[in-house]
Amino acid sequence: MSKESFLTEQIHPITCSQRLKIVQLLGNNGGSMSEIPTPDYSGGSKRLHRSRNDRMIMGVCGGIAEYFNIDSIIVRILMFLLAFSIVGLLAYIVIGLILPEE
Hints:
This protein is mainly alpha-helical. The chain has a domain at 3-35. It has five helices and no strands. The protein has helices at 3-8, 16-26, 60-68, 72-82, 86-98. Helix 3 (60-68) packs across helix 4 (72-82). The radius of gyration is 23 Å and the shape is elongated.
């Protein structure tokens, strides 16, 4: 295979049936099929909301942190820095009023 054809070749993910065939061919080392992770295609289970558990004032920073899967301290520090401008403070209030609670 030449270098050019390797670079232009399209790569496609395997399907569930292909994955099962691979496991049948190679074996599963005594494990069960439930150990093989199945991709989550639910698409939409993750929503931006105000947090009930991780809140200081309105739960905005906690909700944003949960949505992006980061520590809420990072979001609070960024919001604190933004609060020095009137735009940041107004944005926090508007987001707190618009976002639904968890």
